[in-house]
Amino acid sequence: MTVLLNQKVNMNVEKLNSDIERFPQVHPITPDMKLTHKGVSRLVMLDRYAFKDTEKLTLSEGDFVVLTVKEDPKFPARGLGYVESINFEQKTAVVKVEDEFRGALSPEEAENGLITRSLDVIEKPLEVFYEQIAKRNATGLASVEKTEEKRKEWFEKFYQELVQLNFVPAGRVLYGAGADTDVTYFNCYVMPYVKDSREGISEHRKQVMEIMSRGGGVGTNGSTLRPRNTLARGVNGKSSGSVSWLDDIAKLTHLVEQGGSRRGAQMIMLADWHPDIVEFIISKMQNPRILRFLIENTNDEMIKKHAQDKLKFTPLTESEEAMYQGIINYKQIPGLGGFSEKIIKDAEEKLQTGGTYSVHNSEFLTGANISVCLTKDFMDAVENDGEYELRFPDVESYSKEEMANYNENWHEVGDVREWAKQGNKVRTYRTIRAKELWNLINICATYSAEPGIFFFDNANDMTNAQAYGQHVVATNPCGE
């Protein structure tokens, strides 16, 4: 799993140690240090967890750097290399990329490995050995001790466990401990239920943004948000629905730059009893073929409607029709006119359908993974091929006193079944054949890997949180 540094890279250790002197958090390289890891593990260590000269105070020619080797808005690629030259006026540098990362380069760049990149996507790691990270972590973890003697004692204990890999902390600890930065030591969080108000949603969004900015992933259960088109008396209008608000929260993943270079992570969930559950599942579907399959094969009108709303059809223009017909005309000619069979088949399909299928709002909810919270009631209905009620507190009929109770307590309860048991009015928005919803979940998960499923009642039955008067609200991205 590990290799010697001098087997992988060739750097000026004396200069790097001189640069390190400007950063009291970083421990210098010593002759006994050997752990660098290899392959992806090495890249992850240097990119995500190593302490870096983020202000580029010491960056110079010959330095070993982590950088974006492939600049792509959706799928950028990171790699390692050495600075050949720097133009501080233009804020660019020429970097010679290591061989194993040249696969992501263009053919011209890959030939000699030299690429020009903005300094914004180039970072200089000051910790190139795992032992340096272990020493920084041990220093940070031991710093809470009250005496110097105790700090030294616990530094040594922590360091030995870390450097021998007997204990490997979570990524946020590796990155943050001992770094003197204001980041979290926890990888992932679960938020309380969202309070069903503009103020509640704004506060939830603010807390998610704060957690993500410090490097933490976040899990949210949006089941407390009222369904689409439900009356919002305060503004004499109707709610845009839970799914639109959850998409707004999901967008934070794209907006917030997390501590270190860790990619943002969110898990967003909705209960199987929520009236918006079908919209929630279909809204993230990116495959038009599956949407067409749902439209043609489902017996549920709501599923069909949401699939139709998501599906986008662009008719062929006259010139496109002529072009595809021209391609098909070569089908009977030897050599197919230079076209492959696949191209001819695609042309036939285009003419048969009369256009191109795609999806509306292709970026919808892409900032989060989504899962459905499954209850025992729903699974029983699936097994018995029964009907299942989609329900929510009947806010439209609540009196002033009942609405005050809703605003004060609904987000603390978060489960429509418990809310009904407490004697509060609940409205059944519609019923759905449980197997139709179950099939929808499975079809979408099979062909797009989402939604996930979270056995909500089972989790609450088995959690030790009950001993503390708590209950499970959702899972975080790490626990999906």
TrEMBL record:
This is Ribonucleoside-diphosphate reductase. Belongs to the ribonucleoside diphosphate reductase large chain family. Keywords: Cobalamin, Cobalt, Deoxyribonucleotide synthesis, Oxidoreductase. It catalyses: a 2'-deoxyribonucleoside 5'-diphosphate + [thioredoxin]-disulfide + H2O = a ribonucleoside 5'-diphosphate + [thioredoxin]-dithiol. Coiled coil: none annotated. Its cofactor is adenosylcob(III)alamin. PANTHER family: RIBONUCLEOSIDE-DIPHOSPHATE REDUCTASE, VITAMIN B12-DEPENDENT RIBONUCLEOTIDE REDUCTASE. GO terms for molecular function: ATP binding; cobalamin binding; ribonucleoside-diphosphate reductase activity, thioredoxin disulfide as acceptor. Its EC number is 1.17.4.1. Residues 187-480 form the Ribonucleotide reductase large subunit C-terminal domain.
